[in-house]
Structure formats: structure tokens, C-alpha cells
Amino acid sequence: MHRCGVRADSPADRTELRRFRIAGTFVDTSDIRRVRAAIKPTTKLLFIETPANPSMAITDIAACAKLAKKDRILLAVDNTFATPCLQNPLALGADVVVHSMTNSSTATPMWSQASSCPVAITSTAN
User: Fold this and answer.
1) Parts of the chain with a pLDDT under 70
2) CATH annotation of 11-123
3) pTM metric for this prediction
4) What is the pLDDT of residue 113?
5) How far apart are the C-alpha atoms of 11 and 59, rounded to whole Å?
6) What is the C-alpha to C-alpha distance for residues 126 and 118, in angstroms, rounded to an integer?
7) Which of 96, 94, 1 is nearest to 39 (CA)?
8) CB within 8 A of 33, min separation 6: which ones?
9) By C-alpha distance, which of 102, 104, 100 is closest to 122?
10) Could you give the CA distance from residue 104 to residue 121 in angstroms, rounded to a whole number?
11) Can you give the residue ranges of every domain in the chain?
12) Nearest Cα to 52, choosing from 87, 18, 25?
């Protein structure tokens, strides 16, 4: 996971992940060598954000997809900042694409008002 503005790697968030028996390794995903080094035999999901907000760091989606496929890991891409107009992670090998609806629109749909982080999820049809 790329370190981002919401501090997804904060101690409070790590505690929340542990509550659901999920362990995460947080690395700078703009460096594919660090991503490769962080993959463990128990890794099930590689989650990246590119470009990262607020740093604008770029992660090579195709390179991450190649790593993920080799190790049978799902690749999820937060594509909120780039939007589907500028970037198509599915075409680059991602399995799941996430777009935050609160970051790209001032009009929040009714169904999302109950959630602190509403997202739209697009998946490959495998």
C-alpha cells in the first residue's frame, strides 16, 4: 500500500486491520523492488493507489500486475485520482479497481451517506 494522505498506515488503522485478522505491509509502491520484497507466502492482495494522493507518486500498474499474477495475488488499484478518463487499470492487468465517490463529486449519493468511505468497485469478469 502506498503511504497516502489518509494515513492508512497509522497505528489506529493497523489495530483495525488486526481486529479483522488482516495483516498489512506498507511500502512505497512506486519502487517495484520494494513491492517485490514485501510479498510474503501469505500475501493475498496487493492494493495500490496511483497516482498517490497527495504525493502524486506513480506506481507501475503493469509491473505490479505481473508480480501479482506470478504469485497468484489479486491486484486492486485505487484509481480515484486518475479516474477512468485518464487511466484504465483493468487493461494494465488489475483485478479490481476502486473509485472513491466522495473525492470526485460534491454530490454524495444517498446510499453512501451511511458509510465513511463509499466506493464503487469494478472487477474483471473472470
Assistant:
1) 1-14, 101-126
2) 3.40.640.10
3) 0.72
4) 36
5) 24
6) 24
7) 1
8) none
9) 100
10) 14
11) 11-123
12) 87
